[in-house]
Write a structure and sequence with these properties.
Elements lengths: L6 H10 L10 H4 L17 E5 L12 E5 L16 H9 L2 H10 L21 H16 L4 H5 L6 E8 L6 H20 L3 H16 L7 H10 L5 E4 L10 H6 L8 H12 L3 E4 L9 H15 L5 E2 L11 H7 L4 E2 L21 E2 L4 E2 L3 E2 L2 E4 L11 H17 L3 E5 L12 H15 L2
Parallel strand pairs: 3-4, 3-12, 4-5, 6-7, 7-10, 11-12
Antiparallel strand pairs: 1-2, 8-9
Helix pairs in contact: 1-3, 3-5, 7-8, 14-15
Bound molecules: zinc ion (ZN).
Length: 440
């Protein structure tokens, strides 16, 4: 793994940040900064240092500071900010150099943060790449003796793309088994901890989930809720098989519907006609399987009656080495898988739609990646946060996207609006926060 960025890689980062540069994309490349190379070898897990920004660029930082991987900082005389290889650091974040190195050694983490044991969470708390872009924008303008606004024009309009991964349209036996097992497992944990009353309540919940009927058909409700806030969203559909003769793991984990069912096909076409985007939600096993992904894409396209280019992998199954290439080989052009299952945040420290870097060919890929920064389960299952706590987490995230004028996607699953989960309020809160926190 290279520890410093090549000319092509630096140009790629500048290009990814081009929304901040207006018609002057090369300004960042011309700034006087060190280019750090070995022996500043990459530390694993990565280590960071905070660098104070000069007063005239404080706004680009978090409390006036930026987090920099330690190998891109050169200790010495003078102000710290002048001794950082900013483009090297931005490349390292956006290309996820550390995670890629980890994957080569350990295999894909399939988007579970907890597998990166001992890593510093500050890495993903903010869109550091965007903030570096804003800092370089301010610096370049200062070199010209002009304001950034005059030299480069306004920063882009922040964008939070609402998406729904359609994992279930009815309460299948697979879902009943899976969720009941999940609740029962939690109940046994309480039992083992001798928390009898808690265990009893959890067993009761597990039993209720198993036997209680519930409607997971929530398209109209979502459309109405979003209309109240003047928003339209994207629905990602599964294009695989719903056969009970599937492999047991597929039956248990993949969605249990077929887009060939007239009722579902009609729902997809109605959504599309109403101005909603339709994307593909490839199966659990498709993350490195071009043929499988392609056949699922074809089935969805047949149901929809037009090409599909947007995609997010089911369970966020994702490998840096394989998944984007597999998607590109299928003709998919816009992925929003890049995020963690078990924490909100900015996995490549970015709130940007960008073309991932193909290091082998030293060119950008054709496909666009837009990070996924928040998923419903992160603020329910993984945190079991109280409503207030949940709103604080969501508001913080929205503020970050607005502070950096960035672009991200978020996931709210349709079936969690059912009383089985009761997560409709959380989504309404999110839509409301987009309005209140979005005002600058
Ligand atoms: Zn899914």
């Amino acid at each position: 793994m290279a520890t410093s960025a090549t000319d092509a890689e630096r140009a790629w980062v500048c290009d990814a940040l081009s929304a901040y540069w207006g018609s002057e994309p090369n300004r960042g490349l011309q700034l006087p900064m060190p280019r750090l190379r070995a022996p500043y070898a990459e530390a694993m897990p990565p280590r960071f240092t905070t660098v104070a920004l000069p007063e005239w660029a404080e706004d680009a930082g978090v409390a006036g500071n930026l987090l920099v991987p330690i190998q891109f900082f050169l200790p010495g005389e003078g102000p710290d900010w002048a001794r950082v290889d900013w483009l090297g650091a931005a490349f390292w974040y956006l290309h996820a150099c550390a995670e890629r190195a980890f994957e080569v050694e350990n295999g894909p983490i399939h988007s579970f943060r907890f597998r990166l044991q001992g890593w510093d969470d500050r890495h993903w708390d903010h869109a550091w790449v965007n903030r570096i872009g804003l800092f370089l924008r301010a610096w370049a303008a200062r070199e010209q003796g002009m304001s950034a606004e005059t030299l480069f024009g306004p920063v882009p309009v922040p964008e939070v793309v609402l998406t729904h991964d359609v994992d279930a349209v009815r309460k299948t036996w697979a879902i009943r088994f899976k969720q009941t097992a999940f609740h029962a497992f939690n109940a046994f944990r309480s039992l083992a901890g001798l928390r009898m009353r808690e265990a009893a309540s959890k067993f009761w919940h597990a039993f209720q989930f198993l036997v209680q009927p519930a409607s997971y058909w929530r398209f109209d409700e979502l459309v109405q809720m979003e209309a109240q806030f003047g928003r339209k969203s994207r629905f990602n559909f599964y294009g695989g098989s719903d056969s009970i003769l599937r492999r047991p793991r597929d039956w248990l984990i993949d969605p249990g519907y077929s887009v060939e069912t007239p009722e579902i096909r009609d729902a997809i076409r109605t959504l599309r006609a109403g101005g909603y985007d339709i994307g593909l939600h490839p199966s659990f096993a498709a993350w490195n399987d071009v043929d499988r992904m392609a056949s699922e894409k074809t089935r969805l396209e047949t149901a929809l009656g037009e090409p599909v280019v947007q995609v997010r992998m089911h369970w966020l199954r994702f490998s840096w080495a394989d998944t984007w290439h597999a998607q590109e080989a299928c003709g998919l052009r816009d992925d929003s898988t890049l995020g963690f299952n078990d924490r909100p945040g900015f996995r490549a420290a970015a709130a940007l739609a960008f073309h991932p870097w193909d290091a082998k060919r030293q060119t950008p890929m054709q496909l666009t990646a837009t990070p996924m920064t928040l998923m419903d389960s992160q603020v329910y299952d993984y945190h079991s946060a109280e409503p207030d706590e949940r709103r604080v987490i969501m508001a913080k995230l929205i503020r970050e996207v607005h502070d950096v004028a960035g672009k991200v996607t978020i996931i709210w699953h349709p079936h969690v609006l059912s009383p089985d989960y009761g997560w409709a309020d959380g989504y309404r809160d999110f839509l409301h926060l987009l309005v209140t926190e979005g005002k600058s």
